[in-house]
């Protein structure tokens, strides 16, 4: 795996984590 592929994966993982964080926050609020 090249460093470029690893960076891509890290970015995707971070985006998913942010999405999951928003879902959890919305659940707590409602």
What topology emerges from the helices and strands here?
Layout: H1 3-29
Task: Give the end-to-end Cα distance, rounded to a whole number of Å.
Answer: 42 Å
3D shape: rod-shaped
Number of strands: 0
Instruction: Find the structural class using helix and strand composition.
Output: mainly alpha
Report helical residue fraction.
Answer: over 70%
Main beta-sheet annotation: none
Give the ordered list of helices and strands.
H
Unreliable residue runs: none
What's the number of helices?
1
Computed over alpha carbons, the radius of gyration is: 13 Å
Descriptive terms for the model:
90% helix; 30 residues; 0% strand
Question: Can you tell me about this structure?
Answer:
The protein has 30 residues and is mainly alpha-helical. It contains one helix and no strands. The longest helix has 27 residues, at 3-29. The protein is rod-shaped and about 45 Å long. The model has no long low-confidence stretch (mean pLDDT 92).
């Amino acid at each position: 795996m090249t460093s470029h592929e690893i960076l891509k994966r890290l970015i995707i993982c971070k985006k998913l984590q942010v999405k999951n964080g928003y879902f959890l926050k919305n659940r707590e609020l409602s």
